[in-house]
Amino acid sequence: MSLEKYKQKRNFKDTPEPEGKVEKRKTKLTFVVQRHHASHLHYDFRLEVNGTLKSWAVPKGPSLNPKDKRLAMMVEDHPISYATFEGDIPDGNYGAGHVDVWDHGTYEPVNEKSEVITQEQFEKDIRSGSIKFRMNGKKLKGEFALVNLKKDEKSWLLIKHRDEHATDEEYTAEDYAKKSSLAYTASRNTGKKTPIKKATVKKAAPKKIAAKKTAAKKTVAKKAVKKKVLTDSSTSITPYSVRKGGDKYTDYIKPMMAKLHDAAFDSKDWIFEIKWDGYRAIAELNARNSRLYSRNGLSFEMGYAAIFEELKKIKQKIVLDGEIVALDEDGKPSFQLLQQYGMNPESSNLVYYVFDLLYVNGTSVEKQPLIERKDLLKSLLPESDVIKYCDHIEGKGTAFFKAMQKQGLEGMIAKRADSHYYEGKRSGDWLKVKHMLTDEAVIAGYTEARGGRKFFGALILGVYENGKLQYIGHTGTGFDDKTLREVHKQMQPLVTDENPFGTKVRVNSPVTWVEPRLVCNLKFTEVTADGNRRHPVFMGLRIDKAAEDVTGEAPVAKEAKEPVETPAKKTKTATEPNDSTMDKTTTISGKKLTLTNQDKIYWPDEGYTKGDVIAYYASVYKYIGKYLKDRPESLKRNPNGIKGPAFFHKDAGEQAPDWMATYPTWSESAEKTIDYLLINDKPSLLYVANLGCIEINPWNSRTANPDKPDYLVIDLDPSDKNSFNDVVDCAHVVKGIFDSAGIDSYCKTSGSTGLHIYIPLGAKYDYEQTRQFAEIIAQMTVDELPNLATIERSLSKRAKNKVYIDFLQNKEGATLSTVYSLRPKPGAPVSTPLDWKEVKHGIDPRDYNIENTVKRLEKRGDLFAPVLKKGIDMIKSLKHLGM
Questions:
Q1: What distance in Å separates the CA atoms of residue 542 and residue 438, rounded to the nearest whole number?
Q2: By C-alpha distance, which of 192, 174, 168 is closest to 231?
Q3: Is the pLDDT of residue 552 over 70?
Q4: What is the rounded distance in angstroms from the CA atom of residue 617 to the CA atom of residue 556?
Q5: Coil, strand or helix: which one is 168?
Q6: Spatial separation of the C-alpha atoms in residues 77 and 560, rounded to whole Å
Q7: Positions of CATH 3.90.920.10 in the chain
Q8: Distance of CA 104 to CAs 584, 746, 831, Å?
Q9: pTM of the model
């Protein structure tokens, strides 16, 4: 433990902070949480370890709610005497601002079994990236954990363990701050000066807090009282958050923008880049005063601290233009994950993709040709997992755009190779070509909530045309409980009696109008002839765009003058001919069902339609039904076929028919109650297929035992340079390990490029036991095939010639395409069970498809049926494996 970095950053002649020293003590270990309003409001979380205070900056403060996973950035060690420091750090000093003690007390370092451990062992746990401790403070009590995100050594998560001190209520540290702290923040927000007490360091150590059980309900009651005090106050106090926006700079660079273009093209004079789905961000870097902000000047420095800290390592004095993106587990950008980053940082990989260079050492390079700016940029950027150069291809825009479509990305940006950079201008030298239909919209009002929903039903949306707000539709999907609450809260100060459109709009319930100031992101299926967005889904609020700048840029659907020629269709399945040339309403088992757009082409190259999907599932229901019954469904919808955008839909929503069975359950990841659909009969399966669900993705467990899966699955997922023969080789090694354990295993094609291997569990073990057992099998497979198999999940770290042995599908809520499910892939493949004799070199999974699956079932029967039979004895199997 050292205070060297702490002392290097401070001039103790100018700051009242204690210089301190390393002082090992024999008393109980202490902790302190200090509320620190410097350039941004945050909380400093400090634990005494071997003579110093190990320290983390927590932007949102600690929480007693186990669902909250608070980002904590490790900073330099502080002296123990800092634990009693309160007051002002003068301007010009490191961390200038106001500090108050928010909570303090004693703590005990513990291990996985909640047993007290030594400080030496605790230090080892810190170095390994995972610590647990039991706190005894005035506010913070019970067990907590700090876990390193592994993306960099500084980024951690602070998590409350569930115990008698935990609460399921919303917990905000600001609700428990001192009045003097809140007054200081109020003065900062309003620009007024409020007298603040002189900085002090108490000579006495923090008082020991007697351990006493405080019920979570009392904590919540105190919180309610504090909320009333704040509500009654005349001063509005808003903690920092990315979604609401942080500090706003008045002097900043506005980025150059692209114009919308309707189609991809080729030209030797243009370069083509990925269109990232994130926040545009300018980074001004120099040794003394670096900044990171949005296109309208909102600071991103605390909200995306991991990126800002990495940027500050760059030694050159430069100005960069790029996009902050949150990547999902498949390495694809997700705007929704970016919106949720502050609440759930471990759910995504945060990256700043840099695509332009504006200044070098104070000199503008904006008049240099783009291609030269990018060459210089590439030479200046260091290698990093967080800050990445955005590469491009030259000339071949059409092929590049098709690759974007295949990857399911939003689109591409086309730029003239010799273009200059025009700050704050939208130029035809840069063009955006979209694959997925996305747009921005102004929120003009909301409808009242119905049923069990809270806050509001749907948002009323518009865009500006010639300075006037035009109605484009309304959306009630894409929300969880937290976003419903947050959006509703932000709309309340804007409520008005005046209709922003100035004319009546068609909605089906009473509307509360709001001043048109808030902007949101949407995705949708098409634009109708009258300009409405069809099937719009809310993707999050935008903090980086003014409402008056939102103009409709999505292309409007044109009414066809002549019939559209479609590809010739392949021979249809003989079991159930398709007569779906129009919408129709039918009754099955007494349940009324409307099937729409059955002639819509889903596979353009093969000619298969939505009606073919419905006919297939009608034919296969007697086989697939038992694998779906009583299992919550995660719906993956492809409403425009396999080449259109897809999205997941877990919540049944308001549109599900009354006869559709559902399963309401709390989702930890979404932090809301999700009303899952259950496919318990044939009409339900056809209803889901009619929604555009080409593939069916049920849970591994049933509603009777939601915590206990009926089977374990090993998912064999090849990398780019693997052949299917490699997958077959891995499958037989997995089978051999199961054979050694005395377990019969069952294989099916994934319907794509991999294989799935199942064993029956009979709902005897919970998900954690199942995952651990699956991990043992996966690791044994890798040990057997070290040059071919891997359990490395990260695509960026995984070798391109290794098959991923995925054991992580064995967790609650995780889903794979079920047996006999169609897949939205070329050729309309089906996830098909195989006899192990069929799993051999030369097999082609595309040979099992919509054309022949029903005939195969009628001939071979259901090869997968044993998966739902009596489960294995896991203990006995482990003994067979020598464990």
A1: 13
A2: 174
A3: no
A4: 34
A5: coil
A6: 68
A7: 584-690, 711-880
A8: 67, 56, 57
A9: 0.42
User: pLDDT tens across 188-216, in order?
Assistant: 544 444 444 445 554 333 333 333 333 33
What is the CATH topology of the domain spanning 438-549? OB fold (Dihydrolipoamide Acetyltransferase, E2P) (2.40.50)
Please identify which residue in the block is written with the tokens 């083509």.
272
- The single residue listed with the structure tokens 């209520």 is 169
Strands (E), 679-727: 711-717
Compute, in degrees rounded to 10, the torsion defined by CA atoms 55, 57, 61, 63. Answer: -50
Looking at 3.40.50.1820, 3.20.20.370, 3.90.920.10, 3.30.450.370, the CATH number of the domain 584-690 comes to 3.90.920.10
Contacts of 345 (CB under 8 A, 6+ apart): 69, 71, 149, 155, 157
Tell me if 851 sits within 8 A of 570, measured CB to CB: yes
- What six digits make up the tokens of 537? 């889904």
pLDDT above 90 for 93: no
Report which of 172, 19, 178 is spatially closest to residue 104, judged by C-alpha positions: 178
CA distances from 632 to 614, 617, 652, 678 (A): 20, 18, 10, 5
Q: Work out the mean pLDDT of the chain and round it to a whole number.
A: 82
Instruction: Tell which CATH classification among 3.40.140.10, 3.40.50.1000, 3.40.50.880, 3.90.920.10 matches the domain 711-880.
Output: 3.90.920.10
Are the C-beta atoms of residues 514 and 494 closer than 8 Å to each other?
A: yes
- The fold of the 257-434 domain, in CATH, is D-amino Acid Aminotransferase; Chain A, domain 1 (3.30.470)
| Whole-angstrom distance, CA of residue 881 vs CA of residue 883 | 6
**Cβ atoms within 10 Å of 169's Cβ, excluding its own:** 13
Nearest CA-CA partner of 701 in 628, 623, 776 = 628
State the CB neighbour count (10 A cutoff) for residue 454. Answer: 11
Residue 453 backbone dihedrals phi, psi, to 5 degrees:
-75, 150
User: What are the DSSP calls for 806-835, one per residue?
Assistant: E-TT-STT---PPTT-B-SSTT-BB--EE-
